[in-house]
Write a structure and sequence with these properties.
By secondary structure, the protein is of the alpha/beta class. It contains 9 helices and 10 strands. It binds adenosine-5'-triphosphate.
């Protein structure tokens, strides 16, 4: 195992009853990279992500987070920021109050980061707004802000742009790239939309019917642009 591996998944296998949902999935993320997990609905992306958080128990396989094998401690998970499915907030509370509440769980010291993350995700002027006054795009960005509060080394984003319009998708993509470049945060982002991950990923892993059928690195992505689109559409 390489020491700069932030996340390593080896031969993950998961079945729900008779249905094999993950079939021998292996992948690794090196420090600082953006890894795009691309696949159609039902391909198995969320199940991979849930396994990292111990939310589903694989039948076999190994997961290492920062070189430590599962199960992970709370301290290990505090080095990870995540959005799994649509972020949920206390709708009647303000943006700031929601982030303060999160710090009660993650650690008081992160309260000092609230203004910075709100600036990073472009919501500083919305600090006093109640959540039910925010657009979907703002809520998605706030979800990212909350995930960043504890200065994570790894961000895991499961379909973070679900429901956003094209402009919102572009904004969100730029935001992830900027966080990766500013803080060196390693990112695992899942999507069923090729363009969402294609533009920013250093590596794309294509998941189909529970198998990681192909990995393509950034260096090859540009030259293969048409191929990968055709490939993806044919899945
Ligand atoms: P989507 O983009 O639709 O979320 P996905 O690639 O994230 O898709 P998963 O959510 O991992 O896919 O689901 C993979 C398969 O596993 C699907 O067929 C799904 O119905 C099935 N599945 C997921 N969770 C469960 C569960 N708890 N019980 C039974 N089947 C499940």
């Amino acid at each position: 195992m390489l020491l700069d591996n932030v996340l390593e998944i080896k031969n993950l296998r998961k079945a729900f009853g008779e249905q094999l949902v993950l079939d021998n999935v292996s992948l690794s993320l090196k420090k600082g990279m953006i890894y795009g997990l691309l696949g159609a609905n039902g391909a198995g992306k969320t199940t991979i992500i849930k396994a990292i958080f111990d939310l589903v128990k694989p039948q076999s396989g190994e997961i290492y987070l920062f070189n430590k094998k599962m199960p992970q401690s709370v301290e290990q998970y505090k080095k990870v920021g995540s959005i799994i499915e649509t972020p949920v907030f206390y709708e009647n509370m303000t943006v700031e109050e929601n982030l303060l509440l999160h710090c009660d769980y993650m650690g008081e010291q992160f309260k000092n980061n609230i203004d910075k993350v709100l600036q990073d995700v472009g919501l500083f002027n919305e600090k006093e707004k109640r959540i039910d006054q925010l657009s979907l795009g703002m809520k998605q960005r706030l979800g990212l802000g909350r995930a960043l509060l504890n200065e994570p080394e790894l961000l895991i984003l499961d379909e973070p742009i679900n429901g956003l319009d094209p402009e919102g998708i572009i904004d969100f993509r730029k935001l992830i790239l900027s966080i990766n470049q500013t803080y060196g945060t390693t990112v695992l982002i899942s999507s069923h939309i090729l363009i969402e991950v294609f533009k920013i990923a250093d590596m794309i892993g294509i998941v189909s019917k529970g198998k990681l059928i192909k990995e393509i690195s950034k260096n090859r992505l540009e030259e293969l642009e048409m191929d990968i689109e055709e490939y993806y559409l044919s899945l």
